[in-house]
Amino acid sequence: MMRLTAHALTCQRGGRIVFADLSFSVAAGEAVQVTGPNGAGKSSLLRLVAGLVRIESGRLALEGGDAEASIGEHCHYCGHQDAFKGSLTVAENLAFWTAYLGGGGGSAEAAMERLGIAHLAALPAGYLSAGQRRRLALARLITVARPIWLLDEPTAALDLASQKVLAGIMAEHVAAGGVVMAATHGPLGLPTRELAIGRAA
Amino acid sequence: MTGPLAAIFRRDLTLAMRIGGGAMVGVVFFLAVVTIVPFGVGPDMNLLARIGPAILWIGALLATLLGLDRLFQADADDGSLDVMMMAPTPLPLVIAAKAAAHWLATGLPLVAAAPLLGLFLNVPPEAMGAVALTLAAGTPALSLIGAVGAALSVALRRGGLLMAILVLPLTIPVLIFGVAATNAAIVGPLPFGQPFTILVALSLMSLVLGPIAAAAALRFGLE
């Protein structure tokens, strides 16, 4: 059984301690909502788990995963930036990430259908609205299989119907034994455990 | 061709060919540099023929470096670099694939344009082949050395200035042996093989060391 354990994590960015002595544990089949005031380090925590920010001190360990792979290689990271190119079409962007990250999930057509961007497949991604961009970024959660999902404000710019679709996708992932860690201010729409970090505002 | 490396190679090539991608910017810049030289040095045909190969090489060097600082910056700006670095594919191989796409999109058109632009400089026809051959052997080194500078400018969050200061000195050996091989082919007295072999060695060395150094620079740039 997969379990992600953090022990006394400290994160420093730009010479400032963002959070210190943070310990938590997330098991397979759990959805964790990371909450806290602005600047508490929600995004930094997700980037730190993804391996994109150095661990200043403390320990982060993953049990039950692939011992050959780093923790970041087990993770999907959807940050504030959507990570695609405006001059490639929606389908080309999704096909690139699917091929680059190794695929192993559902088909691109099914993913685009599910997120309601199938009719935009041939449109250059630069013409998408903010909500459509976000839905395209989330489509790779479906096409590429990764056990741990790190989602930074996944519901930002999404309308209510899309938020429901996203909640359904996350619920399926959790039910299949996956882990979701989402930094968000609003409700995610599925049963979650709250991990509050940072000082009270 | 499938797999992560083929995917990134194809994506970078497609991006370069699309509108705003900048594949042809290098050739146009090359053309601009080469055409203004005869106006600057005057219509002395013998002088032009003598300095022609060097002008072609300097033009190609500057044209290669022109858009190179965007090699990783564009991916860093839109968040793609984060996702790329999390993938199981080794980062040096990804960088080599990106550099290969960069060379194919900007280096190879320069090689193809060089014989034509040689006409402006009164480069003798028999020397055109030598210029094209040395450029074909030397420009991959420029793309690969430039990748290290591009990675550093992302890691240190400084723009193109750093690129010029760091990369230009490293490209000077390539320039020296590229021009030396070309001149050897035209006027002698040195055999062509000697400087040309060193030029090829420089390209091969950059192929091995460049991606590793660039990957180290990108990893260093993590906060």
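Chain B touches chain A through 28 residues (CB under 8 Å).
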